[in-house]
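User: For a benchmark we're assembling, each entry needs the component sequences followed by a predicted structure for the full assembly. Here are entry 17's components. Please fill in the structure.
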Amino acid sequence: DGGITQSPKYLFRKEGQNVTLSCEQNLNHDAMYWYRQDPGQGLRLIYYSQIVNDFQKGDIAEGYSVSREKKESFPLTVTSAQKNPTAFYLCASSTGTGASRNTIYFGEGSWLTVV
Amino acid sequence: AQKITQTQPGMFVQEKEAVTLDCTYDTSDQSYGLFWYKQPSSGEMIFLIYQGSYDEQNATEGRYSLNFQKARKSANLVISASQLGDSAMYFCAMRKDDFNKFYFGSGTKLNVKP
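Assistant: Structure for entry 17:
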């Protein structure tokens, strides 16, 4: 079945460590996104990529980094510079045809906790 | 800048009754799309319904309908005959044409009472 796979589902990070969240999609979508969601809050855009080897900062990019070497993959690294990384992270993808009716599809999310 | 506003942090509805979740948006563009998503406690985001800015009729998908008032820039979600399984967070979102960025509101937590 087509979809977006995020791993791991749960991740614990020690202070000062970098961690990488994986996101893979087999929907043949051009655009991919990372969102952060704090408990009871909405989604905030971290980074997005409209095409391979290109990505743009979202609203809260500080302390995060991404790469887009393959169309299917858009990993997110939470660096030690991110002072409050405990949150729920959602990866998403969308077709890049430009028509607004093309919706965004989400993975099941990853819970990151700093210990 | 684009902005989505959901003014109801939480709502209660009796099972089998209808409920309206409010969403207003701010854009100077003429062509855009509006979406509603449901997020159960498991965290997954489920697409519910889409409305294009040029669509003349309000969108409907089963028990979900979108009350689109373009002049007022509102896109309210109506859920008819609420079910216990409708209890979740609901997010309104907007996407501009020819642009792959989605803007989300802060969400409304709906609780359906038996």
